[in-house]
Amino acid sequence: MNSVWNADFSPMSAGEYVVLVPDAPHNKNMTRFYRNAEPGLRYDQVWFPIKTGDNSRYVHVGNLSEGCTTVLDLAAWANIEEAPISHRSMDGASVARLVVKGTPGRSK
After folding, report:
1. Where is 19: in which H helix or E strand?
2. Which of 21, 40, 66, 81 could pair with 9 as two cysteines, CB 3.0-4.6 Å apart?
3. DSSP string across 46-106
C-alpha cells in the first residue's frame, strides 16, 4: 500500500518476503491517533520489518503507508500482532512469510 507515490516510495513487488521480529517500538505519533477510532487498539508501536533492501519496510497497523504492508482492521491488530510474536522461526530472527501477488497499481 502506498500513501505517497514518487521515486522514494513504491509498492512492494510481487514475491515472497521474510518478516522479521520487531526491531524497536516505533514513534507513537505514527499510529497512536488510531486509538481515537479504535479505543481498544494496543501494540500499535509494534512494527515488523520486512527483509528486503535495507529492511525499512514494515508490517504495521494503520491506513497510511510509504511502501509498507498495513493492516487496516484496527480492531484485529492485537490478534494479528500476537500470531507472529508467538510463532518465531527456529533461527529466532523471523516470524512469518509474506507473499505479495499481482502487479501493484494506482487506482484513480
Report:
1. strand 15-20
2. 66
3. --EEEESTTS-EEEEESS--BS-EEE--GGGHHHHHHHHHT---TTSSEEEEEEE-S----
Q: What's the pLDDT tens digit per position in 52-76? A: 999 999 999 998 887 888 899 999 9
Q: Is the pLDDT of residue 98 over 90?
A: yes
Length of the chain: 108
Beta carbons of 92 and 1 less than 8 angstroms apart: no
Side-chain-side CA neighbours of 35 within 13 Å: the count stands at 14
The maximal CA–CA distance of the chain, rounded, in angstroms, is 43
For β-strands 69-71 and 57-61, DSSP reports them as: parallel
Which grid cell is 99? 507473499
Between CA 68 and CA 47 the distance in angstroms is 10
Q: Would you tell me how many other CB atoms lie within 10 Å of the CB of residue 98? A: 17
